[in-house]
Structure formats: C-alpha cells, structure tokens
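Please, structure for the following, as tokens.
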Amino acid sequence: MKRIIHTHHAASAIIAFNGWQLGFSSFSDAANFPAIQSLLRNFYNAINNAVCSEYGIAPDVQREFSRMSMIRLTNPQICDTIERNIEQPLRQLGPDEKIALPLKLLLKYNFNTLPLCRTAAAAVLCGEKNEPDWGKRFGIGQAGMVFSYISKITDKTVIGNIDFAYNQMKTDIKI
C-alpha cells in the first residue's frame, strides 16, 4: 500500500493541485500538459530510486509500476475532474498522506523533492482559496510553515522550497 501512496497517489496529487493552480478542470488535460509532465518525470525518477532503496524492489519492476501509473493518470478516456481530486486539501497534506509520506521518503534518501514541494505549495494555496476557515486556522501566505505544521515535516529546505513555489504561484498567470 505504501508503494501505491508513494508512487501513484503522489503523482495524482501532483496532477490535481498543479492542474488546479494552472486553471485546468479536466484531470487528463492537466496530466498531459507539458509543465505537469515535466514535474511527473522528475517525480517518478526520484520516487523510483527511493522506493527501490527503501523496499528492495528491483528497479525495472518499480519503473514498470510507475510507467503503468503514468499511463492510467494521463489516459484521456478516463473522465475525472480536478475539482474532485483537490477535495480536502487539509487531509491531503497530512503526515501519512499522498504528499507528505513520499516527501519524507525522498528526504530520507536525499532525492529530488521539488515536484512535491511545488505540489504542497499548490495544495496550501488551494486550501486558502477554497476552505472557508483556512485563514482563521492557519493564516494566509505562510505556505511552508503551514505545510510543516500539518505534515510534521520540519526540513528547512523543504519549507523554503514550498514558500518559493507558493510566492511564484501567487504571481503566475493562469492558462
């Protein structure tokens, strides 16, 4: 189950929250957008190495698992929405959920965390925009600290990368 969360569910979060931030409504349209494809490639490369290191899975087996995940997530015949996939951003940022759990594994083995940092920033922004009591609970504009509080990840580089991505997103033009 952890392998599925580390790989497939995390990739789904990358598509959903970054797709939301970029203004997509269709999950498959977001999944096939070049910038999100780039995030996914970088993520899969890092998580494949981390999963193999952590669980002793053969690299070719994990690469095939990721390849099948990518095929499923980018399939335009599977009708899904960004809106459905970004529900409950607070829960999705939790310490054992699809963003933080694989991020912890990537940190453990010192692999690229940037795709998940960008996703965490988008999820915090999504919470600020869509959850009525978010501002009262967490404030606005402190994405790295909010993520750290919710996820229990205290790595200063991660917090800084989330803040950087968040601030960049606040000024980005939607597609």
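Residues 94 and 150 are 6 Å apart (CA to CA). The chain is about 75% helix and 0% strand.
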